[in-house]
Amino acid sequence: MTAPARRAFRPRRRPRGSCSNGEAPTGPWPGAPLEPTGNPMIDGVGPASWAMRTDEPDVGFDDRKPKIVPLRVATDFWVATEDPNPVGMSVVGADGLLAGTCTDVWVDRSETIIRYLEVEVPSNAGPKHVLLPMGLARVVTGIRSSVRVASILASQFADAPTLRNPDQVTLREEDMIMAYFGSGHLYAKPSRLGPWL
Hints:
The chain is an alpha+beta fold. The chain contains 2 helices and 9 strands, in the order E-E-H-E-E-E-E-E-E-E-H.
């Protein structure tokens, strides 16, 4: 019996200057840094990049149901009465302008934690629902109760990734959402690019 023949690994070479998304090399040499060519928060370059994870929702170990769902689906969860409920609050972008209204809270059923806020934002095609990562939101209570977002401007909410299914989020969609909102710390305003000194 003979061992199967082994094939040598040969990496595929991309033609010089070709890239997969909306990016272009900053120089003619191999390994030159890439810079976005269009909207950097959508192009998937640098802090806006995401992994091509499976396009299925993360499921619970015990019941095999999607873990992260809105409260309208997870009816056995609620926001504690001691905590501010963001549903109905205005969502304000980094520029201080109104981005939309919080319409629901998304919970992780296995971790019992709020993961996202669902925000209804105006767009050219009518109202659009996007998920705002809770880690990048600040709920402010008082006379002007609102949800504040420092990472992106109000107008940029309309370009945020949307969900294929309005009642669950896939692993890939989570990566795209986190990349979009997280990249705003660098790409939301031109003044955020470049050196600080």
